[in-house]
Amino acid sequence: MRRLMILLAVFLVPLGIFAVMVLADQAYGGTGRGYGYVIEVTLPDAGTIAALPKIEGPIDTSRPLVVIDAGHGGKDPGAGTGQVKEKQLTLAMAIALRDELLRKGGIRVALTRDDDRYLFLGERPAMARQLGADLFISIHADSTEGSTEAFGATVYTLSDRGSSEVAEKMAARENSADSINGVKVDQQSGDVSAILVDLSQREALGRSQSFAQLILREGRGNMPFKESAAQSAAFAVLKSPDVPSVLFESGYINNPLDLARLSSATGRNAFAQSVAAAIRVFFARNGA
User: Fold this and answer.
1) Which residues pair with 76 in a beta bridge?
2) pLDDT tens-digit profile of 70-93?
3) In degrees, to the nearest 5, what angle opens at C-alpha 286 toward C-alphas 282 and 288?
4) CATH, residue 215
5) Are residues 2 and 85 in the same domain?
6) How far apart are the C-alpha atoms of 76 and 79, rounded to whole Å?
7) Do 256 and 148 form a contact (C-beta atoms < 8 A)?
8) Which helix (H) or strand (E) holds 171?
9) What is the pLDDT, as a whole number, of residue 248?
10) How many structural domains are present in the chain?
């Protein structure tokens, strides 16, 4: 009998102590202890932008707005040769285009980034939409593997299938930017995934193609083009349902001639003046 009592004490005493501790904790414990509390965490909506960029130019909000996107940035350097990285060239070109538009006035301008920051692909067109942009242009620079013969700029618009194998590969490379952060383009919202079958996209797509043709026309003689006609592919950064959008591949960083042109003030000015002229004609045609 005594042995049984000892065994019961061995098991029951610790259990009793534990029960007293739990009751005391619920009755007198601070916030975050026991069960009498609820933690609420507010998560941002999928399409929310942490901070929209500033709009420069006329204070008249009826004036057209262009959003200029410097491709890549931050931990995503893009293409590069030695110390020169795509993210640096695209930012310099975006700033040159902004300054040229502001210099002649009449057009409002915003940059998706004005420093070396990383942006998700989906954030870039989302900024344009939330700002109410009338036009979106994403600036990039390419690089080929091995050969340095590829030369000149190419203008792209959106399509569900690339206009060529080169366009398909180009879109695949650009769309992989988010994968460095473990986020895939095909994980974007259903609205974006279905954009090409959305009837509301057709008007914007037609205007995108018109703008692409204007860049080719205004740029001819001022900067070299690899392709004489606009190309198309499924670029994630162009998937905005209601903002005319183009992607401008400015040249090939691993080509010495292109690199020298893109790195020089003269080359950037030629780009800025040509694209700015195309933008003004575009808005004139569309009554803006």
Assistant:
1) 73
2) 999 999 999 887 889 999 999 999
3) 90
4) 3.40.630.40
5) no
6) 9
7) yes
8) helix 165-175
9) 98
10) 2
